[in-house]
Known about the structure:
By secondary structure, the chain is α/β, with parallel strands linked by helices. Helix content is 44%, strand content 16%. The protein has one domain (7-253): NAD(P)-binding Rossmann-like Domain (Rossmann fold, 3-Layer(aba) Sandwich), CATH 3.40.50. The radius of gyration is 18 Å and the shape is globular. Bound molecules: nicotinamide-adenine-dinucleotide. Keywords: NADP, Oxidoreductase.
Amino acid sequence: MKIEGRTFVVSGGASGLGRACVRDICRLGGNVVILDMNEELGPALIKELGAGSAKFLVCDVSDTGSIASAVMPTVSWIKETGKPLGGIIPAAGVGRPGLILNKANEPVPLSQIDFVLSINLRGTLDLVRQFLPALATSPPFSSDNERGVIVMVSSSAAFDGQMGQVAYAASKGAVASMTLPMARDLSRFGIRVVTVAPSMFESAMTAGMSDKVRKGLEKAMEFPARAGKPEEFSALVRHAIENVMLNGVVIRLDGATRMPSKL
Length: 263
Ligand SMILES: NC(=O)c1ccc[n+]([C@@H]2O[C@H](COP(=O)([O-])OP(=O)(O)OC[C@H]3O[C@@H](n4cnc5c(N)ncnc54)[C@H](O)[C@@H]3O)[C@@H](O)[C@H]2O)c1
């Protein structure tokens, strides 16, 4: 898939890893619709990129009506710009740590589990589901008749989740698990599905970590012994968009790091 001349929907695109993808896509001549709840960072990014190539829509991916109300404006903008939909990147995500059973013998509140699953898992699936009809009717590209690509975001926690990450690991493991069946469902439409599973990357999500936790994580790393940079994440997403042979696969982006139980 060529990025130039196509439109990509990026949830969580106002910050961190999603924002790096947005910047990359625009730099390469693609258009982006950013779906995010952050009403400060979203408009600021549009200002940076220019309204010609990026559009911000306030959207809560855990609310199916909120996603539904973003579909029509996206489709209209695509018609206006003449850049058909080329991909969906559900990057919105949250982490809310909590032991499944704490020292006081209290189980993790169900509301905490629901919060994480409703954004990371259900929000990812619902976003893809609701934008797919538009993607499946995009004009095919190249001799492969490719219509588009979905690049989902899992995590190291899908494979080696740490203490307190039961809900987060469940959400990210599910995203990894649905990669292949989704690719199988969509192959007849010429739509690929690739998932990236990053370890610790610099972003708002990790900025709040204490020095102790950060140092502990860095100790657990192989090479390079540092957090990944958002541009290193978006470089892989860009490759996933461009390389038609990547499909139905989860790619770890972690410098060989395997997370320990605790730090
Ligand atoms: N940073 C890391 O170390 C790391 C590692 C593995 C996976 N991830 C995953 O990468 C993705 C991006 O995270 P990030 O690190 O860039 O964090 P971030 O906090 O910088 O960005 C997340 C974005 O998602 C948005 N968002 C949150 N809830 C939303 C909702 N309900 N609807 C719409 N938007 C919502 C936020 O407003 C924010 O702009 C997440 O799925 C996260 O789980 C991050």
